[in-house]
Amino acid sequence: MPLRLYNTMSSRVEEFRPLRDNEVRMYACGPTVYDYGHIGNFRTFVAVDLLQRFLRYSGYQVRYVMNITDVDDKIIRDAARDGVSIQQYTAKYEKAFLEDSALIGIEQPTLVRATQHIAEMAEFVAKLVEKGVAYRTDDGSYYFRIAKFSEYGKLSKKDFGGMLDGARVDVDEYDKDSARDFALWKSPKPGEASWETAIGPGRPGWHLECSVMSMEELGESFDLHAGGEDLIFPHHENEIAQSESLTGKPFAHFWFHARFLLVEGEKMSKSLGNFFTLRDLVLKGHKPSSIRYLLTSVPYRNQLNFTFDGLKQGAVSVERLRNFRLRLNGGNFPPGSNTAMQSLAIETVARMRAALDDDLNTAQAQAAIFEMVRQANAAFDTGRIKKDDVAPLLTVLAKFDEIFAVLDDDDVPKMRQVLDWAIAVGRGKDISVELRDMVQTGQLSDLEIEKKIGEMKAARNARDFKTSDAIRAELAAAGVTVEITKDGIRWRRK
Ligand code: AMP
Ligand code: ZN
User: Fold this and answer.
1) At residue 182, what are phi and psi to the nearest 5 degrees?
2) Model pLDDT for residues 80-91, shown as the tens digit of each residue
3) In this structure, which residue's CA is closest to atom 14 in ligand 1?
4) How far apart are CA 258 and CA 107, in angstroms?
5) Which of 197, 295, 177 is nearest to 237 (CA)?
6) Mean pLDDT of 463-479
7) In a mutational test of the pocket of ligand 1, which residue from 8, 32, 44, 66 has the highest number of ligand atoms less than 8 Å from its CB?
8) Which numbered atom of ligand 1 lies nearest the CA of 268?
9) More confidently predicted of 450 and 204
10) What local confidence, expressed as pLDDT, does residue 350 receive?
11) In the chain, what is the straight-line distance between the N-terminal and C-terminal CA atoms, in Å?
C-alpha cells in the first residue's frame, strides 16, 4: 500500500507519489530565531521529522530543506531592545534551535538562511515587477498585487471576491480574514537592518524568503511543503501566489499542515502560564524521550492536548519499550524458534507500516508495537521465546525506532546539557529537584552503562583485568551491579 496523505490543497487524503522517480523533495517552514522554541513549534517540527523518516523508511530518497528566518519584524525589534546586531541576536537562538532539535531526536534537514539569499530575493522581486504582478511604492518598498493572481485563496479556501484592489499591508502576519497586497520587500527604516540590492536598499518580507529558497534548493515544482496550520493563510497562500506567478507552474504538490497543540486544554499563551519551551520541560525533570513520544502519540492532524499526565504516560511507554529490548538483549533463551513469535514480528511490521501509510496514523503504529510487547512479554514469562525469535523481535523494535526515535537511552546526558545551560544563563533557580537528582546522583543512562560494559568486555578480551575491574567498580559506585557469567556480562541497577 502506498502512503496516503492529506493534502490541504485538495482537502482530501491522496496517494502520495513523488514528481520525480524515487526522490522526494520537501520543504518545511522553519523557526523565526528570535526566542527559544516552544513545544507547539516542536509539535510541528517533530511531525515533519517523522514524515521524512517514514518516507525514507518507505524507500524514498528524501531531500528535506528547512529555512531559518533570521531577519523579520520581531527579530529587528528584539535585537534593538537588547542593543545587539541582528546577527548576534539570531546566532544565539539558531544555536538553541539546533540544540533543541537534537535534544528531541530531530534529524537535521538541509538548513537555509534568509540573510544568505538576499540578492536572489531582490532578483525575484525584479522579475515579478517585470511580469506586472508586483509594484514599487514611493518609499522604495515592493508589494505583490493579489488581484493579478486569480487563484489567490485556493489553498486556504477563502473567498476574497470583495477585496479591494491596491489595499496594502506591510506586516508579515496579518488579519486572517482580509486579503491585501502584501510586502515583498520593505524599504529601510532608521535603525533597521537593510541590504543594498539591484532593486534598491531594504530587506525581504517573510513570505518571499520561503518562495525563493525552496525553489532554489528544490526546483520550481517540488513534492511537499510543510508547516503548522497557522501558516496556511497568509504565509503559504502568499508563497503560492508569488511562486506560481513567476514560473507559471504548480509550486508544491502536497501541502502538509500540523494541527496546533493545546496545553492542558487551552491555547498556549504566556499570560495563562501554560507556555513551555522544551528547556522548561527538561528543567522540570522531564526526559526528552518522553516529550518526543508524547508529541508523536497523536496523529499530526488531530489536536494534541499536551498535559503533564500525558508526559508521565509517555515516560512509562518509553520505559516499557526500553525494558523489553533490554530483556531481549540480556535473556537466556532455549534453542530453536517459535512460529507464533516469528509471525508476531512479521505482522507487527506490517501493522506499523499500514498505520503510517494511512496518513501517518502514529497512534495506531504505537498500538501495534505495544501489542507485540504485551504478547512477547507473556511468551517470555512462560519460556516460549526461543533463541531464533530474538533477532526478528529486535528488528521490529529497530524499525519502530527508525521512525519514532526514542529507544536509545541518551536522556541523562541531554538533561545534563540543559542543566549546565541553565546555570550558565542564570536560570539556576528553575532547576527542579527532579532534574538535579537525575543528573547529579551520578545516574548513568542505559546507553552509558552499555558503553562501559562494552569497554569492560574489550578489556577482558585483551586480558586487561585491572581495567575491567576498575570499570566494574565505577559502575558499582553508580549503583549498577555487574555479573560476569560464562554467557557474557550482564548488568542491573541496584
Ligand atoms: P514560528 O517560529 O513562529 O515561525 O513557528 C515555527 C513553526 O511552529 C511553524 O510551522 C508554526 O506553524 C508552528 N507552530 C507555532 N505554534 C504552534 C502550536 N501551538 N502548535 C503547533 N505548531 C505550532
Ligand atoms: Zn515559510
Assistant:
1) -110, 155
2) 889 899 999 999
3) 41
4) 18
5) 177
6) 84
7) 44
8) 19
9) 204
10) 98
11) 47
477 or 129, which is more confident: 129
Q: Are 346 and 396 in contact (CB under 8 A)?
A: no
Q: Whose CA is nearest to atom 5 of ligand 1?
A: 31
Residue appearing with cell numbers 539591484: 198
Amino acid at the residue 406: V
- pLDDT given at position 191: 78
Determine the Cα–Cα distance for residues 37 and 228; give it in Å rounded to an integer: 14
List CB-based neighbours of ion ligand 2 within 5 Å: 29, 210
pLDDT of 247 over the 60 cut = yes
Nearest CA to ligand 1 atom 18: 40
DSSP for 421-488, please give it: HHHHTT-GGG--HHHHHHHHT-PPPHHHHHHHHHHHHHHHHTT-HHHHHHHHHHHHHTTEEEEEETTE
Phi, psi of 65 (to 5 degrees): -115, 140
pLDDT of 159 higher than 80: no
Ligand 1 mean position, distance from CA 303 (Å): 14
Instruction: Give the residue, by CA position, lying nearest to ligand 1 atom 9.
Output: 228
Over residues 265-283, the mean pLDDT reads 93
Give residue 86's identity as a one-letter amino acid code: I
Instruction: Read off φ and ψ for residue 12, nearest 5 degrees.
Output: -140, 160
Give the number of the atom of ligand 1 that is nearest the alpha carbon of residue 259.
21
Report the SS3 class of residue 267: strand
Distance CA 244, CA 1 (A): 32
Ligand 2 centroid to residue 357 C-alpha, Å = 26
pLDDT at 164 > cutoff 70: no
125-134 mean pLDDT: 97
Whose atoms come closest to the Cα of 65: which ligand? 2
391 CA to centre of ligand 2 in angstroms: 43
DSSP assignment of 135-157, as one string?
EE-TTS-EEE-GGG-TTTTTTTT
